[in-house]
Write a structure and sequence with these properties.
This protein is α/β, with parallel strands linked by helices and about 475 residues long. It folds into two domains: about 200 residues, Aspartate Aminotransferase, domain 1 (Alpha-Beta Complex); about 250 residues, Aspartate Aminotransferase, domain 2, CATH 3.40.640. It is built from 16 helices and 16 strands. Strand 10, helix 10 and strand 11 form a beta-alpha-beta unit. It is globular, with a radius of gyration of 22 Å.
Length: about 475
């Protein structure tokens, strides 16, 4: 068994962190009186407590202790232009000052303009908006099940499609002699949900073919990320995604690309275009909203028609669907990305390559067998995202979420928890060991990240 025990190490780092950030520690004690675990999003609740942020600008956030923290989380990977960029905040401020921006409960021309942008930039025929990526993937699955009349949903083990019923199956690897993703992740789910989801392995064409051969007549859809996020920022192999398109079409299933992270992250539009694959439906969020809550389900007109009057799928929208301020932010962001695509993406991709190389080299220089994921492939020509893994076998290929998330294969706690806390003591914030780059980051920030990684590694060794 390869499990590493970091309990004593984490206690030492936590004590040092409490001395480093006493105001955030005090704020956390107050938060625990009212909020479950002190917050409302699990990934933000860094142990022993998260930094409480008072302001954010560009590449940095500032906490209540006055630390200026170099941030690579960047709003859950949404902030391609950095925190609170003027390109977005100024139009929003003008709108609020002129009497536009809060919810009205009416439609407006802005929604049409944003819809036209989404369709044009992603190659979709129709779109309907909602307010989160979780809702978007849920509605996409509902549409697929309604359109095909089938119930079985196929996904990749280790893929995260939000906190919705079909997304809450097969996210975390269940440890044991036969480590598996084929299980429900949450209490309270109807028992049938887990039986309606079948997990397959990312980038494994043979397994994909086998699952379709066994279940093809029952599969309503295959939902997959072209670049898998929580599974390690691994890009989809072009042959794998081409096979997904071929097999879903052959068996009468729908192909759903979850581009909540990938959409507008690698180009000013859908990542599917880089693969030359046209999914039946796609979901978008994060980058397209520029830091405001907006998401979309887009795709074939005949499938999307089920969301309309008489279509039978209750994708009718919520109070904050097409929120005016979110629509304004989305229009502003997508127009900006499209107009500056030739400058933005080569820049953040080059920083991403530099950051992955710098982090890997810095940790290895201190004796840690680190590997950075997120490198591009022939379809994804450049990448501004990355994660860190610590494989026990230094020569092992890291090609699937099973390897990234299996504590028998990699030291998962070292990457996700220990390194994050040690870097916060250097006033640097990462998620899964790295995160994402933005236009607000510079080569100087990447250099500082490398220095922080070396200091964090030395701190970890000293605390063991």
């Amino acid at each position: 068994m390869n499990h590493a025990n970091h309990e004593k190490l984490l206690k030492k780092l936590a004590a040092e962190y409490e001395r480093h950030s006493p105001r955030s520690a005090a704020a956390n004690r107050e938060a625990l009186r009212y909020l479950v675990d002190g917050g409302s999003h699990a990934l933000r609740l860094i142990r022993p407590f998260p930094p409480r942020i008072s302001s954010a600008s560009g590449a940095f956030v500032t906490d209540e202790d006055g630390h200026r923290i170099l941030d690579f989380w960047q709003g859950h990977y949404a902030n391609v232009l950095g925190h609170n960029p003027a390109e977005l905040t100024e139009p929003l401020a003008k709108a609020f000052a002129s009497g536009f921006g809060l919810q009205t409960g009416f439609t407006d021309r802005l929604q049409v303009e944003v819809a036209e942008l989404v369709c044009r930039l992603t190659g979709s025929e129709r779109v309907r908006f909602t307010s989160s990526g979780s809702l978007a993937t849920m509605y996409a699955v509902l549409l697929a099940r309604g359109f095909t009349g089938r119930e079985l949903v196929m996904k990749v083990g280790g893929g995260w499609h939000g906190g919705q019923p079909w997304g809450l199956v097969g996210v975390d690897l269940k440890e044991g002699d036969h480590a598996s993703y084929q299980h429900a992740e949450s209490k309270g789910l109807p028992g049938a949900v887990a039986d309606e989801v079948v997990c397959t392995r990312y980038n494994d064409v043979a397994m994909l073919e086998r699952v379709f051969a066994e279940n093809g007549a029952r599969i309503a859809c295959f939902i997959v990320e072209p670049v898998i996020g929580s599974g390690g920022f691994l890009p989809g192999d072009p042959a794998y995604l081409a096979a997904a398109r071929e097999l879903t079409a052959k068996h009468g299933s729908l192909l759903i690309f979850d581009e909540v992270i990938a959409g507008f992250r690698f180009r000013a539009g859908a990542a599917s275009a880089l693969y030359g694959v046209s999914p039946d439906l796609a979901t978008f969020a994060k980058v397209m909203g520029g830091g405001m809550p907006v998401a979309a389900v887009a795709g074939r007109a005949d499938v999307m028609a089920l969301a309309g009057r008489g279509g039978g799928v209750k994708f009718s929208g919520g109070t904050y669907s097409c929120h005016p301020a979110s629509m304004l932010a989305a229009r502003t962001m997508m127009r900006h990305l499209a107009a500056h695509e030739a400058e933005i993406y080569p820049y953040i991709n080059s920083l991403g390559a530099a950051a992955r190389k710098t982090v890997q080299e810095a940790l290895r220089a201190e004796g840690f067998a680190a590997r950075c994921t997120g490198d591009p492939n022939p379809a994804i020509g450049g990448s501004s995202v990355g994660a860190v893994v610590f494989p026990y076998n230094g020569s092992a290929m890291i090609a699937s979420p099973e390897q990234v998330r299996d504590p028998e294969t990699c030291d998962v706690e070292l990457a996700d928890t220990v390194l994050q806390l040690a870097l916060l003591l250097e006033d640097v914030h990462v998620v899964h060991g790295l995160g994402s780059l933005s236009t607000a980051h510079t080569a100087v920030h990447v250099e500082r990240l490398g220095e922080a990684c070396r200091a964090a590694a030395r701190r970890i060794k000293a605390a063991r």
